[in-house]
Amino acid sequence: MNIQWYPGHMTKAKRAMEEDIKLIDLIIELVDARVPYASRNPDIDRLGRHKARLILLNKADLASETWNDAWTAYFKARGFQAVKVDSRSRAGVKQIQAAVLAACKEKIERDRKRGILNRPVRAMVVGIPNVGKSTFINSYAGKACAKTGNKPGVTKGNQWIRLNKSLELLDTPGILWPRFEDQQVGVHLAFIGSINDQILDKEELALRLIGFLRERYPQALMKRYKSGENEGVSETEEGMLPDSLTLLEDIARIRGCLIKGSQYDLKKAADVLLDDYRSGRLGRITLEFPPDEENT
Q1: Which of 9, 122, 147, 270 has the highest Cβ tally under 10 A?
Q2: pTM for this entry
Q3: Does residue 156 carry a pLDDT above 50?
Q4: Other beta carbons less than 10 A from residue 77's beta carbon
């Protein structure tokens, strides 16, 4: 698959971020805990030079807890403050204030020495589309401050939000970068719904996802797609899962995705699979692993 998506409004949003970066003390970068590498826009490191940094592994409830801990340790070892959170349930949100203070410790100390007391930390909230920035802001604020949605492109412009006397947040639109040099990055972003579905071959995407699940999480497929007491996804004589196409056909059969003539509607089955993954109905599944642990 060759996936590229960089609509024109992202260029405008990036320029606005470049203008606003001089106004802020801290960058709060949200990544998707299922794909912490693919969901990091490389432009943020360039924009964020000389700024305090905090990485939030959002949607941690959808990713493996073991790998959530491994990724948190990975980012901390590289000098970032890092917290795993689930913005929808507010899990982990209480840890963020301490992480903000730790990230901005030098800035706060400089202000104190200059006699500047109680000046709020100004933080820019950044991340790719559909990573949950607005949901995080609303959860952190305890009220609806930012518009949310389950598809990319909901936030259209920058918006300042004063949370309390010590912290102000600048909400920004989700932006990608002009070209994915590694196509696996594009595929992973498509899996989690950060790419416009309308430009994707979802049937092929579903086959790619099944291929990964067959290797890493076979029980997730077997548990989710079963009908009756025993009937479910196919197994070979060796008890292994069959090829990806056969499994997609199994999902079509089990979920009643049929077209006239009792043929399998693989496009509809692909929608079922992708929606099950994105919503967490397949379980807590991490797609990427820290570089030094990816082969474990």
Answers
A1: 270
A2: 0.88
A3: no
A4: 11
